[in-house]
Known about the structure:
Radius of gyration: 21 Å
Distance between the termini: 31 Å
Shape: globular
Number of domains: 2
Organism: Streptomyces echinatus
Strand content: 15-25%
CATH topology of the largest domain: Aspartate Aminotransferase, domain 2
Number of strands: 15
Oligomer: single chain
EC number: 2.6.1.44
CATH architecture of the largest domain: 3-Layer(aba) Sandwich
Structural class: alpha/beta
GO molecular function: alanine-glyoxylate transaminase activity; pyridoxal phosphate binding
CATH class of the largest domain: Alpha Beta
Order of helices and strands: HEEEHHHEHEHEHEHEEEHHHEEHEEEH
Number of helices: 13
Enzyme class: transferase
Bound molecules: 4'-deoxy-4'-aminopyridoxal-5'-phosphate
Helix content: 25-40%
CATH superfamily of the largest domain: Type I PLP-dependent aspartate aminotransferase-like (Major domain)
Pfam family, one: Aminotran_3
Amino acid sequence: xxxxxxxxxxxxxxxxxxxxxxxxxxxxxxxxxxxxxxxxxxxxxxxxxxxxxxxxxxxxxxxxxxxxxxxxxxxxxxxxxxxxxxxxxxxxxxxxxxxxxxxxxxxxxxxxxxxxxxxxxxxxxxxxxxxxxxxxxxxxxxxxxxxxxxxxxxxxxxxxxxxxxxxxxxxxxxxxxxxxxxxxxxxxxxxxxxxxxxxxxxxxxxxxxxxxxxxxxxxxxxxxxxxxxxxxxxxxxxxxxxxxxxxxxxxxxxxxxxxxxxxxxxxxxxxxxxxxxxxxxxxxxxxxxxxxxxxxxxxxxxxxxxxxxxxxxxxxxxxxxxxxxxxxxxxxxxxxxxxxxxxxxxxxxxxxxxxxxxxxxxxxxxxxxxxxxxxxxxxxxxxxxxxxxxxxxxxxxxxxxxxxxxxxxxxxxxxxxxxxxxxxxxx
Length: 427
Ligand code: PMP
């Protein structure tokens, strides 16, 4: 018997959400599998987006971390730090940002805070454009640019935030439009917002909204936005915390589906790059990164041990072409899920790219979100030995699938079969 849940309830804040009626304590993992306290094994179709970009207990990362732990973990600032410089160099090389500078933080939230610090200082403006249904983190300023009400626990931000359309296609006034008309409608909305505000510092957007339900804006949307923003000197911040490092298969960064007008001014990243070690960061052109006129350091951002993990993990990802694996295996998985859900009236859409796949549920025969069935499917999948996530701003009615990027075809098929069964048994 595991009494950890009751202890958790007594000591942790009420707002610290857990999945499942009987939450799982994960005790160890290997590859794409994790084990719980009772020794039950699960195929992990969600940990890839949270912490584990490549594989659980990847030997290359474990070795790099334990060797570094035995050598030195010191401040990431004030003294030269070799693994930090080396990882920054590698990230700059793959960033697609000209004259890139890299700054490391400990989380995605802190990365986005840093991006806001840069953009507001560079533009001398505290007005920010953000997307409806977005999620950018939990700090005071990050919740101030988070459009997803369920993840924005205070409205007292000192930023002036204006929300624009575009992140979600299945709902809202522009639902049902084809790609071209959808983009035109969103650009018209953006221009309308710009006509009623002081000059904003930046637009921040997730290329594919993560917490918002793995949504799928049309390719080119942010390029069309970029044309409008550029004309007014407004910066484009791409929050790549979920979409970076090849997850979307076709592209190494999510913004590359919107690259016609050049790369973003600022990119933020976090989550899986350390394969569980806490790495976040910001990439920006030197002109923007260097606009701060006083010291700004992070004691733990860029420590040798997290950087050692990042170097080993990114090296593994590139050497084994895990972006290509995400494209191939993710493509098969999407096709397979579309086939098995085609006859299910409650499945409105299977969407996604690479290994970032959303399954949106509605009450059968209606257009209404169906969070209750989504929760039931999560439970049923768990019973079947599969961990998935859920999300979505219009009630939590999208299932989220994001396995480690090393997922095999056999594992994809096994997971699809469990999910099919879970969906069937939940109606
Ligand atoms: N941005 C996005 C797109 C995210 O999905 C998240 C985390 N869910 C964050 C920022 C915040 O990252 P962290 O939890 O590491 O602070």
